[in-house]
Amino acid sequence: MSRSPLLAVITLVVVLPLSHPARADEPAAVAKTEVLKSGTWLMTLPLGLQAGSAYVPDNNPMSDDKIALGKLLYFDPRLSKDNTISCASCHNPFHGFADPARTSGGVGHQLGGRNSPTVINRVFSAEQFWDGRAKDLEEQAHGPLINPVEMAMPSHDEVVKRVKGVKGYAPLFKKAFGDDKIDMERIAKAIASYERTVVAGNSPYDRYQAGDKDALSASAVRGLALFNGKANCKACHTGFNFTDETYQDIGVGMDKPKPDLGRYDQTKKDEDRGKFKTPTLRNIVQTEPYMHDGSEATLAEVIQFYDKGGVPNPNLSKEIKPLNLSAQEKLDLLAFLESLTGDVNNASPPNGLPK
Prior knowledge:
Layout lengths: L9 E6 L16 E7 L2 E4 L19 H11 L12 H4 L46 H10 L9 H9 L4 H9 L6 H12 L4 E2 L2 H6 L8 H11 L18 E2 L15 H4 L8 E2 L21 H9 L19 H12 L4 E2 L11
Parallel strand pairs: 1-2
Antiparallel strand pairs: 2-3, 4-7, 5-6
Helix pairs in contact: 1-5, 1-6, 3-6, 8-11, 10-11
């Protein structure tokens, strides 16, 4: 079968205000590539992503040198107590920047209580973690370093001391920040800057939306209709990044004797019991297992979970109800979710680390 030509792709440069709230109310169709601009730094986003929805805080403009430094720190296990765990250990580029384990292992093979969320497309969000406890990626970078079941450093001062002990880092900090001062704020800013470049787009779905009607299979096209219609996935997985960036209770784990209460632990509001952040669906096939506790091993299981209407509890989202999907509809929905797998930018590990 001959393939229809892709519609002409327009490159749009978006001058990004350095403090821009992430938006989830954009239409999913983006038939152009856009350029993310922060200060003098530019990055062409993969097809389907919207530069105007990015979030970069005013006090941490992007630069190539800062991103390069952050990438080294992200992959460096020397930032952990026993030199075995890096950010990439739990947010692995070979597993969709997530973790194939149900819950991630840290120093001493200790296990955390939640599945590691993906780093992909986190530039389009301010709040981080399943419960939103970090206001941005900079704040998020602080947490795992001193978490006793993750990287287990005794303090942030010890993290700084460890980085200072690697002579090769000083000139890189100077290039990134103008002088060779090393502190926790700069470490976090560099890591966050790298993470903001980890973006995924140009999926078969994006090419379909841009005019290549052969980019999706007939099954995936039917799945797209289900996603927006009968299955009502778009109620929460909305916009070009397939997330409303809000917190929802779909009932995961709420039938346990002591359930993880998610967002409630941060806000102490009763209405937030059992709520967790809606994840992006981009490259979702790469990030199994699923849910905040890793309880669903495959996407087929996730679809079955939603089909039955989640787990009833007092705070269950009003959008969660039995779907009564047929076996073919479940396969079609799965085919559509698979079509959201696209190119990931800046995913390759560095060739080496500073000495």
